[in-house]
C-alpha cells in the first residue's frame, strides 16, 4: 500500500509540474487538459486519489498561480476550485 501511495504522490507531483510548465509557456489548451484530468480524478477517484490531488497537485498548482497573480477562479474547474477554497479557509493563514 505504501508503494501505491508513493507512486500516486509522484504522479501528482509530475502532473503539477506539467501544469505549471504549461502555464509558464502560455499553453492554455494543455493547461486546461491537465486541470480537467485532475478534476476528473478528484470527482471519480477513491479517497487516496482525492487526498493526493488536494494535498499535492492542487497545493502546488494553486501556489504557483497565486505567486504569479493568475485568476484562479477562472482557470480551475468547479470541484478543484471548491477544494481550493476549502484549503485556503482551513489553512489558518
TrEMBL record:
It comes from the Bacteria. It holds the Pfam family DUF7674. Residues 10-88 form the DUF7674 domain. InterPro entries: DUF7674. This is DUF7674 domain-containing protein. The lineage of its organism: Bacteria, Pseudomonadati, Bacteroidota, Flavobacteriia, Flavobacteriales.
